[in-house]
Amino acid sequence: MFYFGADYYPEQWPEERWPEDAHLMNAAGLHIVRLAEFAWAKMEQKEGQFDFAWLDRAIRVLSQQGVQIVLGTPTASPPPWLMAKEEDLFLVRQDGIRLTYGTRREYCPNNPKYWKYTERIVSEMAEHYKDHPAVIGWQIDNEFGDRCFCKRCNEKFHSWLQIRYQTLEELNNEWGTIFWSHIYTDWSQIPAPLSTAPSHNPSLALDYYRFMSDTYREYQKFQIDILRRICPKHFITHNLMGFKYNQLNYYDNTVDLDFVSWDNYPRTQWDMHSIVDPARVALSHDTMRGLKKKNFWVMEQQAGGGGWENVAIPPKPGEIRLWTYQSIAHGADGIVYFRWRTSRTGTEQNWEGILEHHGRPGRRYDEVSKIGNELRSIGDTIAGLQVTAPIAIMQSYDTRFAFQVQPNNPRFDYEKHILDIYRGFFYNHVNVNVISEHDQLLGYKVVIVPSMYVLSETTAEALNKFAKNGGIIVFTPRTGVKDNSNVAMHAKLPGLVSGLCGMEIEEYVSMPIDQDNKVQFLLPQLEAEFDTFTWADVLAPKTAVVIATHSQDYYAGKPAATINSYGKGKVIYLGVMGDSTFYDAIAGWIMHLAAIKPLLNAPGGVEVVERGKDSHKLLFVLNHHYSSQEIILDNPFYDLISGRNLSGRLTLSPLEVLILRND
Questions:
Q1: Looking at CB atoms within 10 Å, which of 183, 387, 524, 637 has the fewest?
Q2: Residue 639's domain is classified under what CATH number?
Q3: Three-state SS across 252-276?
Q4: Closest residue by Cα to residue 69 from 1, 141, 143, 129
Q5: Which residues in 240-255 are b (16+ Cβ under 10 Å) and which e?
Q6: In which domain, by residue range, is 250 found?
Q7: Domain contains 349
Q8: Which CATH number characterizes residue 559's domain?
């Protein structure tokens, strides 16, 4: 089944308005709502005094219009009476400043008192709604992720370290605490990596970030266990924040969920550009799908301008529909818009919903209704179909955390580097999976390994096996620099994969912020010069063949990229970082090398994604341009949305969407 709905806050509106909202939802094809994730103070106005009667009435009104319910555990925004109890309930920032009341997610996730109150509200909600026929699932909290650096978290960190290292001798050895005379003789001496110290041991900082990620998983699991015990028939999810968010290890933190949800905002007040980068959004979808290797929901799909202090750019006509189908193309089996109606009060008065403040249907409601009517007929045809890919991009949260400690170069951004590489394949119209360093590599033709700074022996061995069996691997600079403890390797780089690459790095150059360079490729399919920046590895081939050389500075003419035959496969090392033109060309060359064909003959900016199961496959074609674009269909297709038979040369209207079945 395909789920289509909105996030609704009945507690913020007069009760006499609820029936009209429910009727309008039904008319627009919406049949699922998320409720109550910010309603703790309404459900427990005084400590231990619970009132669900208002929520019962809201659910009754909605269910009478055929709307089902996902309930949110309300722990992201505790009531004032709770947080007024004790100061240490509040999270402490990395600069040592303790938060005060007035926002949301201001709690310390390791505070046992907060856990006690969490257990009570979640249990009361679960007991009350465990048998309600309209309630089908739960969302835990809301957008987990702020690190806490309070005294209690530091003490909990000590316990975490004792489990990981067993002895202080082992910890001192792994961290190399001999440096700066930091040898610890008692666990209590180990600090949290507060920013009040100019720098910290990179090993300590990485482990603290790992610990805080584990903390949120533990707190989430605490709530999940309550719900599993009381409401075993309900699904459980959590709304994550896409690819860019880098404070939690999302692979670990989604293990206990039934499926992943995430919050998709292509354009908000923090990105006031008129043009949305479709590759950036697509990468988030593919990353979220890759966390559990299964389809996902978008629990907050943008339905209007997203702003707090500022009024953001509203979606242009057709953009809500385009963004919705992009989500579906990449594996969404549920779309829930944020929000139903723009709030008249509070911080998010400028965060637009499907309806404006006045509550009357307008352009955005009409657009959502159009999508709802389309999905009534085609949604169940799409739901359950999978996105499979011949190419995987391997990302690592250990590496993300390590780069947060030591970025290496002011211009380097790990997340942007992955996006740059992903964008090349996006514009070459091929499905891509985003995987972790622990995932199986079977079934892929190509695995891209961008800047795997923290590289384990297990991952190196898996890549070794993949290449031996015929796979193509692509490495980029800053791979293999650190071990699992965030300690620099004592071997020549790229460390554990030097033999796999058939070369060593003679020297590396962290490039000036005011100087770029160029690289000249020497391949028959890729004889071109490209701009490069941030980093330059000067390579010393052993068994590898040079495929590119640096063009400028004192290392001009020296190897910049190599390819090595390894077993039945090929291993490419790109010793430079380039711009979008560079990665677009590299992606095309890699696809040629791996005999991977584009899904469709289409220009850049026309997105093409395939979802399928067995022989049943659908091709999603999305025109992200505000102008008409031309594509070529090599086979006859049937468009599920329009009901047209299509073939040959075809003109797409601005922001047009096709869902093609090969007939």
A1: 524
A2: 2.60.40.1180
A3: HHCCCCCCCEEEECCCECCCCCCCC
A4: 129
A5: bbbbebbbbbbbbbbe
A6: 3-87+106-145+234-382
A7: yes
A8: 3.40.50.880
Same-domain status, 516 and 433: yes
C-alpha closest to that of 253 among 209, 203, 283, 295: 209
pLDDT tens for 487-496 read: 999 999 999 9
Cβ density class 83-114: b for 16+ within 10 Å, e for less = beeeeebbbbbeeeebbeeeeebbbbbbbeeb
Residue 206 lies in a domain: no
* Residue 498 per-residue DSSP state: H
Dihedral sign (CA 316, 5, 384, 424): positive
What angle, rounded to 10 degrees, do the helices at 319-329 and 278-292 form? 30
Identify whether 656 is a catalytic site residue: no
Could you read off the pLDDT of 355-380 as tens digits, one per residue? 999 999 999 999 999 999 999 999 99
* CB 457, CB 496: distance < 8 Å: yes
Cα distances from 283 to residues 245, 280, 423, in angstroms, run 12, 5, 8
What is the CB-side half-sphere exposure of residue 113 using CA atoms within 13 A? 13
Total domains present in the chain: 3
Place of tokens 């004889």: 527
Catalytic residue (choose from 300, 437, 504, 607): 300
pLDDT reading at 8 higher than 90: yes
Q: Reduced to 3 states, what is the DSSP secondary structure of residue 292? A: helix
> Would you state the torsion angle of the CA atoms of residues 72, 77, 82, 86, taken in this order, to the nearest 10 degrees?
130
Catalytic residue among 143, 319, 367, 656: 143
**How long is the chain?**
663
CATH number at 330 reads: 3.20.20.80
DSSP 496: G
DSSP category for residue 22: H
Known catalytic membership, residue 86: no
Q: Do the strands 332-338 and 3-7 form a parallel or antiparallel pair, or are they unpaired? A: parallel
